[in-house]
């Protein structure tokens, strides 16, 4: 990214195209995450330069706030009924949980029943209209996803997420024919070209691009517009920090088809600190009645506590997802 040194930071579209199109190899998580980080920074610079929140530079807001949900349970979800009840008491109107532990290509109905029991416990602990997102997390094969999707219908979930891995999106045709539950996917897709076939095929209801991995605000605004043309809604993936969440909220403000926003307050893998620790004004992400207001300050609308960032940086960061194995010793999807 040496190309950017000394350039005008306000020429965001040109910089995006140069970073993407000037290389022989394109797309993928590494390049698109790098572009995303730079893109978010450029939009923040431009917003602060023009003394306006980013959403004002993208055509203005079409909403004042957006519904959010809370993560409950963990990688191996337990006691999610109580966790959902706690989330409801905190003011959330929806939660999301991992559906299953690891699952083989052809697994037992015991694991199906365990998932159903967990979802039932949430429904009993809240009410029949409380939103329940169920994340298959790519752990489930097409064979088992068809069974799960059909069995879960009785609990009327908000959506099922990533019923199969993105490389198996062809299977969504068969899965969607088995259920009326809305299907969400897209967190492991990185550009409008990745989403093109998914949208035109018509077997997804909610797309979940991650603004920190799918080319940033510039690219995800285009992906969201493509989805709207296909009558498909937007729910950006964001189990990340305050900059990522602020970027999502600025985009949500301008997208008519944005329906709900993921965020990481209290998420299970934040063990030592939380996203609010990194911002100077903790009220910027204060929610009420399950909704979060769109930040109105210039740029991303947040001010980072840079001293705390430097303090945490001294400790280093080397997070890796766990490696799971099935009982037979083969590697399992996490």
From TrEMBL:
What GO biological process terms are annotated to this protein in UniProt?
Answer: amino acid catabolic process; D-galactonate catabolic process
Instruction: List the PROSITE patterns.
Output: MR_MLE_2
Question: Metal-binding as a keyword?
Answer: yes
Q: Which domain of life is it from?
A: Bacteria
Q: Does the keyword Magnesium apply?
A: yes
Under PANTHER family, the record lists:
D-GALACTONATE DEHYDRATASE, D-GALACTONATE DEHYDRATASE-RELATED
Protein name (record):
Galactonate dehydratase
Tell me what organism the protein belongs to. Answer: Halanaerobium salsuginis
């Amino acid at each position: 990214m040496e190309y950017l040194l000394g350039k005008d930071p306000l020429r965001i579209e040109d910089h995006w195209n140069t970073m993407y199109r000037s290389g022989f190899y394109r797309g993928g998580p590494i390049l698109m995450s790098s572009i995303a980080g730079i893109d978010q920074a450029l939009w923040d610079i431009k917003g602060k330069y023009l003394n306006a929140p980013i959403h004002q530079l993208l055509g203005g807001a079409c909403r004042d706030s957006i519904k959010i949900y809370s993560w409950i349970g963990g990688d191996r979800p337990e006691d999610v009924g109580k966790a959902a009840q706690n989330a409801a008491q905190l003011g959330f109107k929806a939660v999301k949980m991992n559906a299953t532990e690891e699952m083989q290509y052809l697994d037992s109905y015991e694991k199906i029943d365990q998932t159903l029991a967990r979802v039932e416990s949430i429904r009993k602990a809240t009410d029949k209209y409380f939103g329940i997102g169920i994340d298959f997390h790519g752990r489930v094969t097409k064979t088992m996803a068809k069974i799960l999707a059909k069995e879960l219908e009785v609990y009327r979930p908000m959506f099922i997420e990533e019923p199969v891995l993105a490389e198996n999106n062809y299977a969504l045709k068969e899965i969607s024919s088995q259920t009326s539950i809305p299907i969400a996917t897209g967190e492991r897709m990185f550009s409008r070209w990745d989403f093109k076939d998914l949208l035109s095929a018509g077997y997804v209801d909610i797309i979940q691009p991650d603004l920190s991995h799918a080319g940033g605000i510039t690219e995800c605004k285009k992906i969201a517009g493509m989805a709207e043309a296909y009558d498909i809604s937007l729910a950006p993936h964001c189990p990340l920090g305050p900059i990522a969440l602020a970027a999502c909220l600025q985009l949500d403000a301008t997208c008519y088809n944005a329906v709900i926003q993921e965020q990481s307050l209290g998420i299970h893998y934040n063990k030592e600190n939380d996203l609010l620790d990194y911002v100077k004004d903790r009220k910027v992400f204060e929610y009420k009645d399950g909704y979060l207001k769109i930040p109105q300050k210039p740029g991303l609308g947040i001010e980072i506590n840079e001293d705390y960032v430097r303090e945490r940086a001294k400790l280093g960061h080397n997070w890796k997802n766990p490696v799971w194995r099935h009982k037979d010793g083969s590697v399992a999807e996490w």
